[in-house]
Amino acid sequence: MTTVLTPASPLTAGDRCDRCGAQAYLRVVLLSGGELLFCAHHGRKFEPELKKIAAEIQDETARLTSASASASDER
Ligand SMILES: [Zn+2]
User: From the CA of 58, how far away is ligand 1's center (Å)?
Assistant: First the structure.
């Protein structure tokens, strides 16, 4: 499994979590060839399972952290 740090196709606001419909920050390419999208919340929740079935995990949750940091509203 490889974690991609410089993805060829970044996730956009149009990419939605398969579970809850929130904006997706993780793209999981499955060994079977499929693809799943998860928000940061569900990405973390399913990470142990995903690592078993993923060929590649594109993790853009760092963008989420920097976005909330720049909003300077962290509690
Ligand atoms: Zn979700």
Answer: 15
Q: Collapsing DSSP states into helix, strand and coil, what is residue 61?
A: helix
Residues around ligand 1, an ion, CB closer than 5 A: 17, 19-20, 22, 39, 42
Residue 2 lies in a domain: no
Domain-located, residue 17? yes
C-alpha of residue 73 to centroid of ligand 1, in Å: 22
Model pLDDT for residues 20-71, shown as the tens digit of each residue = 999 999 999 999 999 999 999 999 999 999 999 999 999 999 988 775 555 5
- The DSSP bridge partners found for residue 36 are 28
Q: Residue 52's CB: how many other CB atoms inside 10 A? A: 8
The DSSP bridge partners found for residue 27 are 37, 58
